[in-house]
């Protein structure tokens, strides 16, 4: 019975949001508020029957409706998969990007790689975005490797700064594009604590010899408390390390 109740609430939520699109005055957001309430009620019903995925989906839809209320000039609801990806990549603020990703099932490393890459020409924006990102989500190795490949391809493809970027949108790039990209990628390298992964990223991206040298030094280090290995003969003739 509760499953049917939750489904009915979600249906009413969708109907309410659709009614808002037919309004001439988009500032009248009563329909959206009602839609958000329905989604929240549906999430509560789902949680009462331990339907975790459905609860999460209903909460994500409620957050998306709240985004539509706050930013009525942009269409956030009922997007196609293509348009959802496009609007996700366009987000310069992590919180809005996360809402879109959760609502449309795009919370995947491959999707976030494109979102992060879109920020790379603005190092300050990248640093803020990444700081908020790592507070919620992990920097997946597959995503970082993909960004390293993007970086290498961009640097190799651009011999003339007057050319258009093969990866970035928006037309021409500033004169210091290489410096900006480098700063942004270093921000990602600093957030990578695994030295082997960091070495792989720096090697793949190319142009970060100082990072490669630093990683090699760390990986070549011998623990300071390491001493000579002394063995003793144990029972059965096997040699065991003497602690």
Describe the structure.
By secondary structure, the chain is an all-alpha fold. It folds into two domains: about 1-80; about 80-225. Helix content is about 65%, strand content about 0%. Helix 1 packs antiparallel against helix 2 and helix 10 (about 195-205) packs antiparallel against helix 11 (about 210-220). Residues about 160-170 have low confidence and may be disordered. Pfam families: Spatacsin_C (PF14649). This is Spatacsin C-terminal domain-containing protein.
Report the uncertain regions. 162-171
- Total strand segments: 2
Helical residues, percent: 55-70%
End-to-end Cα distance, whole Å, is 64 Å
- Largest beta sheet: what is the strand line-up? 1-2
Q: Specify the number of helices.
A: 11
Query: Radius of gyration, rounded?
Result: 25 Å
Mean pLDDT: 81
Q: List the domain count as a whole number.
A: 2
What share of residues are in beta strands?
Answer: under 5%
User: What structural category do the secondary elements indicate?
Assistant: mainly alpha
Order of helices and strands: HHHHHHHHHHHEE
Largest sheet entry = 2 strands, antiparallel
Net shape: flat
GO cellular component, one term: cytoplasm
Protein name: Spatacsin C-terminal domain-containing protein
Domain Spatacsin C-terminal: 1-152
InterPro entries: Spatacsin, Spatacsin_C_dom
